[in-house]
Amino acid sequence: MPEGPSIVILKEEVQQFTGKKIVEVSGNSSIDIQRLKDKTIREFKTWGKHFLICFDDFTVKIHMLMFGTYRVNERKETKPRLSMVFSDGEINFYTCSIKILEGDINTYYNWSQDVMNVNWNPLNANRSLNEIPNEMICDAILDQNIFAGVGNIIKNEVLYRCRIHPESLVGKIPFEDLNAIITECSIYSFEFLYWKKKYELKKHWEAYTKKECLRCNLPMIRKHTGRRNRRSFFCTNCQKLHL
To answer: Rounded to whole angstroms, how far apart are CA atoms 53 and 31?
Structure first.
């Protein structure tokens, strides 16, 4: 599943179509895609893993799910979920979820929850975490209503940086460490974005998919953790378990 930084890259890649009219639309989406024909795109936005195509009185929300892809000014052989053609190019989306949000997009999203948004508010994240003291931190970090845009790669890398075991309970993690996690979720997301643009993201992984701890030279544990049952990679020697 693409994480927040990858959706930001998508937004940057399609900026050429801001203010452009859709002259042709097609696809196998269940929404009324013909509603988009002859409409002008006012803005592209992102909220976490959601890609938002904003029109005057409605917004098309696209979620890439696990295997979604897109092509700008080119096509795949398979039929797109949504294809938008302009006078000078096209955008095609595949294997994704598409919905229409009526009215003002700001009524649907709290922008302060998005770790890559200019309105990101770490204090709100701290308050939200305080309300779930018995949640494992590996689950809390993936809660999109607290850390919109953070996915499993970022989760693993942040917890490794902060030396916190993924199965630690939120309420048991020291205040300073919890704040460090909140801060790193945003910092690492922007680093992820920078490295991905340079096609060198994997080179910078320190925990995700690693077999040996870079700090301890001991085997990394690979385990599906928490109620979300997502893969975690961690070192039991340097990542402290708080229970």
So the answer is: 14
Q: Are residues 132 and 215 in the same domain?
A: yes
Residue 115 has which token pair? 């770790």
CA distance linking residue 142 with residue 98, whole number of Å: 22
Which pTM value belongs to this model? 0.93
Q: Which of 107, 136, 152 is the last residue of a domain?
A: 107
36, 134: one domain: no
Instruction: For residues 185 and 117, state if they share a domain.
Output: yes
Per-residue pLDDT of 12-47, as tens digits, reads: 999 999 999 999 999 999 999 999 999 999 999 999
Verify that 119 and 14 share a domain, yes or no. Answer: no
Mean pLDDT of the residues in the chain: 97
Give exposure, 202-237, as e/b (b: 16+ Cβ within 10 Å). eeeeebbebeebeeeeeebbeeebbeeebbbbbbee
